[in-house]
Design brief:
Layout: H1 8-18, H2 22-29, H3 34-43, E1 52-56, H4 62-68, E2 73-78, H5 81-93, E3 100-104, E4 117-123, H6 132-142, E5 143-154, H7 160-172, H8 184-196, H9 200-209, E6 213-220, E7 225-231
Parallel strand pairs: 1-2, 1-4, 2-3, 4-5
Antiparallel strand pairs: 5-7, 6-7
Length: about 230
């Protein structure tokens, strides 16, 4: 089942265009609260100085860098070279080259052997892949037994008032393009995928259907975002 019906090449081209201002756009789409969400996300991961991690759809490497502060080694994977160039620059600035490796690749067809990683993460990326189930299946395959798969993503508020406000926000959101001199259609895409992605309950079920157990869900900001953490037994 396709969870993102926008052609993959179109999504790739979009991220090539927005790469220089991606961090700003991410702050806008999450109303500036994505940084606090990331902190909560990191606290839920069972990492130590020996952990080997994979960060999917790593983008500009914010989550990759966060992981490297707690883990031994982190591989960041993304399908867009322009995003990876920005990520590499940030990693050099943080002097984390010895702990982070970046590669271009497909989250639905990972170039790694089975049972390779202690933890696999994906932050604000699952809604952009054509088939979320394939990404989840591949994450399960490359995880070691006992490993964690963790997702930080936009979600659907369940409170009626919050949901109404959220929907209204996404109607005006594309017009923020003027603030960053961006393309209004790019903002419309981000708005659309945020509104139409799986609910927290649906994503939990999808993780369980693909082998993950003890799936814990933490809803963020009245359900506007969600953290899912599942285990491979």
């Amino acid at each position: 089942m396709l969870t993102n019906k926008v052609p993959e090449q179109d999504v790739h081209d979009l991220f090539t265009r927005v790469a220089p201002k991606y961090d700003l756009m991410n702050n806008i789409v999450s109303l500036g609260i994505q940084k606090s969400w990331r902190k909560k996300f990191l606290r839920q991961l069972d990492l130590n100085k020996n952990s080997i991690c994979l960060d999917l759809c790593c983008g500009s490497a914010d989550s990759t860098i966060d992981l490297a502060k707690k883990a031994k080694l982190v591989t960041g994977l993304d399908f867009n070279q322009e995003m990876l160039k920005i990520a590499q620059k940030k990693i050099r600035q943080k002097q984390l080259q010895s702990k982070i490796k970046l590669i271009a690749g497909d989250a639905m067809n990972l170039p790694f052997a089975a049972n390779s990683f202690d933890c696999v993460t994906i932050c604000f990326g699952l809604r952009n892949v054509p088939n979320a189930a394939k990404t989840i299946q591949e994450s399960y395959r490359v995880l070691k037994p006992g490993g964690q798969f963790a997702v930080l993503e936009m979600s659907q508020p369940t409170n009626a008032l919050v949901k109404l406000g959220w929907q209204a926000y996404f109607k005006i959101f594309p017009y923020f393009a003027k603030l960053t001199h961006g393309n209004i259609k790019d903002y419309q895409y981000l708005s659309k995928t945020s509104k139409e992605f799986l609910s927290a309950e649906q994503l939990k079920k999808l993780l369980e259907q693909n082998g993950f157990t003890r799936v814990a869900v933490t809803k963020l900001t009245y359900g506007a975002g969600a953290i899912h953490v599942g285990c491979k037994d």
